[in-house]
Amino acid sequence: MEMSFSLMKTPSRYPQLAETWNNTGNAFKNEGRYVDAVNCYDRAIDIDPKLAKAWYNKGLALQKLSREKEAQVAFIMAMELGHIAGHTIQT
Fold first, then answer.
1. What pLDDT tens digit does each residue of the chain (91 aa) get?
2. Which CATH architecture has domain 15-88?
3. Is the pTM of this model over 0.85?
4. Is 16 helix (H, G, I), strand (E, B) or coil?
């Protein structure tokens, strides 16, 4: 999966793109491209720091990279934002 340079430079003023970055990260994660996935989740989080599923997905990808401490931080952030074991708590 190739990403255009312009997409990588998209300004944060488009909050709906956080979901797109999260979904792109999921595609990379499903292909076993965990570093690329983490980079996409980071972009999603930069755009919307409260996107709990991006934090959770980042944690999953970091685990696959054996980056356990970083994964734990991501999971804690996801939990604090209401995401638990793959389910988002509706408030």
1. 454 444 455 545 566 789 999 999 999 999 999 999 999 999 999 999 999 999 999 999 999 999 999 999 999 999 999 877 655 444 3
2. Alpha Horseshoe (1.25)
3. no
4. coil
